[in-house]
Design a protein that fits this description.
globular; alpha+beta
Length: about 180
């Protein structure tokens, strides 16, 4: 792809990201765009017949696991199986375990989201976790870790948390964020 098309597709992904997540759950444009130069960061997209991005999955490939940072489907077509197809595509690309973060299942929408991943074979973790800030002035966000194909042990969870904090969030102050 030439740079113009890549830029156009990235802009569509970023627009969908803005529609789908609170501002505290994604990076500022320039920082999100910079991730494209990291060989471990990958974007999978689904496009409509007009070539417009209607869904995306942003993921990371580490040596011992893969991480789904974001998955979003255009609000007007949610519930039609596109998110499931994107997740299954990501899951087929490697035999490494997969990790993702979800909000604590405290209301119906959040519970449905957890059930969506459970139907794909993910397990909700038992350990306290917070997402470090992705922007200046944003507080940590209490989340839960889900894992595939099995539930994480405490030592696996600690390893995953350290890798995510260091590599995804550039956050090294682990001791002050333990819960």
């Amino acid at each position: 792809m030439n740079d113009l098309i890549q830029q156009e597709k990235f802009d569509q992904v970023f627009d969908l990201m803005k529609m789908s997540f609170p501002e505290s759950e994604y990076r500022e444009y320039k920082n999100q765009r910079k991730l494209l130069s990291d060989r471990r960061y990958h974007l999978l997209t689904e496009e409509n017949k007009q070539g417009e991005v209607i869904a995306f999955l942003a993921g990371w490939e580490f040596d011992t696991f893969r991480y789904v940072e974001n998955i979003a489907v255009s609000p007007s077509i949610r519930g039609g199986g596109i998110g499931k197809r994107l997740m299954e595509r990501f899951m087929r690309q490697s035999t490494l375990p997969i990790i993702l973060e979800v909000e604590e299942p405290q209301d119906d929408l959040k519970k449905r989201r957890v059930r969506f991943y459970e139907r794909l074979g993910f397990y909700l973790g038992d350990f306290k976790y917070v997402q470090p800030p992705l922007r200046e002035g944003v507080l940590v966000l209490p989340l839960c870790i889900m894992s595939y194909p099995e539930k994480l042990t405490e030592s696996q969870f600690e390893f995953v948390r350290k890798v995510l904090y260091r590599e995804v969030y550039n956050f090294n102050n682990l001791s002050t964020q333990r819960h």
